[in-house]
Amino acid sequence: MPSNEFQTFLEQYPTFKQTESIDSLRKKDYARLDSAEHIYLDYTGGGIYAESQIKKHQKLLSENIFGNPHSTNPTSIAATHLVEGAREYILKFFNADPDEYLAIFTPNASGALKLVGESYPFANGRYLLTFDNHNSVNGIREFAHARGGDVTYIPVMLPDMRVDASQLNLELSKPSQNGHNLFAYPAQSNFSSVKHPLEWIELAHSHGWDVLLDAAAFVPTSKLDLSKVKPDFVPISFYKIFGYPTGLGALIARKSALAKLHRPWFAGGTITVASVQGDKYYLADGAPAFEDGTLDYLNIPAIEIGLKHIESIGYDVISERVKTLTGWLLDNLTAMKHSTGEPLVRLFGPKTTEDRGGAVTVNFYDKNGKAFDHRFIESEANKVNISLRTGCFCNPGAGEIALGISRVELDVCFTSPDHHDKMTIDDFRLCFDGKSTGAVRISVGMVTNFNDVQAVLSFARGLLS
Ligand SMILES: Cc1ncc(COP(=O)(O)O)c(C=O)c1O
């Protein structure tokens, strides 16, 4: 018998019905979640793999012999065939024209970002990025600084944590005339789950910027169609989309933008010819120039298996699933109040499901309006087998804005003599004594069900007094 609450949910979010195939799939292919009684709500951290993906990959490995690719022996050819097949499949999956785009294998999204950062010609140019960015995008600023590029951040604004469009337009209209210009932003925030407009890509192009669209948090639940939008560099991590394998990502890059990059070194696999006495090397063409050493050729075939798995479910179904469950979670969590009338949570990000993904980031407060430490919330959630994530999620810019940590406070903290060249996270917390330095992220994903959301709501209700 469906519960009354489930009936109410269906009345409010009738399109959830269209995603019932995921409930059947979960019983069959993700049974371990329920048999081990896990409430997994950290999908922005990592996706969960289906048992069928593992079986298919294991079968492939146990029935074949694969050797190191790029030789002409039979086992090498077999591996090359699968690696190149996976590369083609990635482009097809994202609807990217192979004449226009390349897929470069990397260890993860951060590896893809580093490839861009270390090779982009920043001299006399500009690096423009939103406050709301993962540290692996922030880190590119160090390459820009080192090469004399100008670095500019565009803030996001509370409570929704969207970007101030007028500031963005102003900065985009001022590219450097003497160098190259790179604009970086996340298609979906890993902090607030805001989906930043994909229209910015063409806007930036029209002013002469190259665009790095960090799609790591977007593609697990939303379709990225590279025939409709044309960012220059797109970093992704595959484990975030379909859970397995870890250790593999890609940089999907436009060939024209790739031609501007200059790799700072060469390695095995990246050259056609390198000479010791001649002190000379020639980079290979295309993706291999960016793939250092031996590829992870035994795991790369699991990417194609994972992408096919997503296609068999369909992004329409996945997006609708995440949208409806996130809506219910947002409605109910933000409505909870203590007996004193104090709200239980403060939300960092959009209150409705419009232009947002499935991560709900909040801090919890007691009946007097005093924040619970995010680490306490995590330890309480651990006790009931709920996996959520706390901290700043490697997104300090969004964190500083959400938690009201000012530039002046940060300057005081960083310039204190004790903090000259070393700082632990505890030292950092001490600088902001009395303020929260982290939040709690509950992220709904592809195989989340109504019970998972009810479990976290019931956990939250337990904090009311
Ligand atoms: C938006 C975003 N970008 C980049 C990354 C980095 O991904 P990885 O740690 O797999 O390199 C993450 C990881 O959480 C992310 O959420």
Any descriptors?
465 residues; Aspartate Aminotransferase, domain 1; Aspartate Aminotransferase, domain 2; 4-stranded parallel sheet; 15% strand; binds pyridoxal-5'-phosphate
Q: What features would you describe in this structure?
A:
The protein is an alpha/beta fold and 465 residues long. The chain has two domains: 4-46 and 315-461, Aspartate Aminotransferase, domain 1 (Alpha-Beta Complex); 57-310, Type I PLP-dependent aspartate aminotransferase-like (Major domain) (Aspartate Aminotransferase, domain 2), CATH 3.40.640.10. Helix content is 39%, strand content 15%. It has helices at 4-12, 20-29, 31-35, 51-63, 74-93, 109-119, 135-138, 140-146, 165-172, 200-206, 238-242, 255-258, 300-313, 315-335, 374-383, 396-402, 407-415, 425-431, 450-461; strands spanning 39-40, 101-106, 126-130, 150-154, 156-157, 162-163, 181-186, 210-214, 233-237, 249-254, 271-275, 280-283, 345-347, 359-364, 386-387, 389-391, 439-443. The strands form six sheets. The protein has a four-stranded parallel beta sheet. A four-stranded antiparallel beta sheet has the order 13-14-17-16, covered by helices on one side. A three-stranded antiparallel beta sheet has the order 2-10-9, sandwiched between helices. The longest helix has 21 residues, at 315-335. Pyridoxal-5'-phosphate binds at residues 108-110, 134, 136, 186, 190, 214, 216-217, 237.
Summarize the structure.
Helix content is 39%, strand content 15%.
Number of helices: 19
Secondary-structure class: alpha/beta
Order of strands, main sheet, comes to: 4-3-7-8
Segments where pLDDT lies below 50 for 5+ residues? none
- What portion of residues belong to β-strands? 15-25%
- Our measurement of the CA-to-CA distance between the termini, rounded to an integer number of angstroms, reads 31 Å
- Please, how many domains? 2
Q: Choose one word for the global shape.
A: globular
Largest sheet: 4 strands, parallel
Number of strands: 17
Mean residue pLDDT: 96
Bound molecules: pyridoxal-5'-phosphate
* CATH architectural grouping of the largest domain: 3-Layer(aba) Sandwich
Q: Indicate the CATH class of the largest domain.
A: Alpha Beta
- Remind me, CATH topology of the largest domain? Aspartate Aminotransferase, domain 2
The CATH homologous superfamily of the largest domain is named: Type I PLP-dependent aspartate aminotransferase-like (Major domain)
**How much helicity do the residues have?**
25-40%
Radius of gyration over all CA atoms, rounded:
23 Å
